[in-house]
Amino acid sequence: MAVEKIKDFVELKDGAVVVKDREGVRNAMDSAIYDAVFEPDEERKKTKLTFLKEVAKACGAVPSSIQGLYEEMGRNYPGFTVPAINIRGLTYDVARVIFKKALQMNVGALIFEIARSEIGYTKQRPLEYSTVVLAAAVREGFEGPVFVQGDHFQLVRRYFLDNPAAETDYVRGLITEAVEAEFYNIDIDSSTLVDLDRPTVKEQQQPNYEKTAELAEYIRGIQPQGVDISIGGEIGEIGKKNSNPEELRAYLDGFRETFKATGKGLSKLSVQTGTSHGGVVLPDGSLAEVKIDFDTLRTLSEIARKEYGLSGCVQHGASTLPDTAFHMFPETGTSEVHLATGFQNIIYDSKHLPNEFREEVYSFIKNEYGKEKKESQTEEQFIYSTRKKGFGPLKKKWWDLPFSVRGPIMDELGEKFELLFNKLRVTDTTEIVGRTVKPVSVPKDVSGV
Predict the structure, then answer these.
(1) How many helices, marked H, and strands, marked E, lie in the chain?
(2) Is the pTM higher than 0.90?
(3) How many domains does the chain have?
């Protein structure tokens, strides 16, 4: 009953958590979060996670919207690019490393995110993800706003074409679940609905901006009092053709005309500049070199800021770029960059991960997902493109790896995060975050704990 141990260091007053012994909470968090994540009863799991999230908020780690910072970026670009990090496996350990580096380097502009697809294959529902991240913040002594984001809350084209209402309802339900779990940053991706067969760019973007506006109105209708959720849109489906100014203006003009809710519109816009999620895998399993069109990124970010007041443009699929490329994001005025697969690669390819465990995961992938292998793929390409699915079903085995294994892998990740924070220039950003973001602690009832 590890969550029970936390109760020794807090008290409940009118259903709210008050911390009596912060150090006691920190020391008990490792076993408490493990207990909550692997609680087999779903209702009890939800109760435990909600309680630990309230404990984290009482310790000063508060789920927040990055809206205020992005409005400042829209007025005056501060010269840094916010990293948005997707954690697929060993989430508590990885988040701890991120917070540790953030504290060492005075990083406040930092987002933790998970995509619709990742929620499925990593088996991390929004409440679990946000709570694990906040628990890691407490463990490392991080206080202040914590930005948790729903990444690629995407309308899947084939599902939408088959049943538009059902697919829209699914995404609406996911948004509801995420907001309840205190994701106060949500990226709506309806770029999949762009219809290139239509005669004009505005008409091509119409299904995209109309659905974004509809879902953005829904978000504004359910957001907690005092919170302006940061909402992102997208014009270029990642992995497809590069975006251009005409598409950006057509989408944003269309959104403005369609969005009927009182309150704020979009804070940023994802565009396509030459990347693909996870990178392009060569037959030997290595990655092809990616060339990002930084001129496009610069041009589109400038238009988004100067003409529409957005923070700028967002780059997806960037974690597999060479380290030498990352300084270009702040230089081109990019407001946010999404990073995922590169961290997964460090974990899987680490010399500290036992070969027998790696092979156990790969055998599981071949058995469970072998039918997904394309005829054109080598085994190396198949494993690389599918091993992300090895985290969720084997989550407990990953978490149960001894510290002698996890510790050195986290050290490798720590070096990567340090490099990225420097290249993206987010060191010493706690001041601007503190000035532009005022965390609102939204109370959740834990009287039933």
Answers:
(1) 19, 11
(2) yes
(3) 2
Taking alpha carbons only, the member of 428, 336, 328, 324 closest to residue 81 is 336
pLDDT at 250 over 70: yes
Q: Cβ distance 298 to 332 under 8 Å?
A: yes
Vertex 426 angle, CA 336 and 100, to 5°: 110
Mean pLDDT of the chain: 94
* H/E stretch holding 47: helix 42-58
| Lowest pLDDT segment from 37-41, 173-177, 272-276 | 272-276
| 226 shares its domain with 177 | yes
Q: Which two tokens stand for residue 390?
A: 């090895």
Is 66 found in the same domain as 28?
A: no
Whether 176 maps to a domain, the answer reads yes
User: With 0-12 CB in 10 A as exposed, 13-18 as middle and 19+ as buried, what is 440?
Assistant: middle
Asked whether residue 77 is domain-assigned, the answer is: yes
Q: Do 329 and 415 fall into the same domain? A: yes
Residue count of the chain, please give it: 449
Quick: pLDDT tens for 179-211.
999 999 999 999 999 998 999 999 999 999 999
Q: Are residues 123 and 172 in the same domain?
A: yes
CA–CA dist 191, 242 (Å, integer) = 13
pLDDT of amino acid 320: 79
Q: Where are the beta strands (DSSP E) in 45-178?
A: 61-63, 82-86, 111-115, 144-154
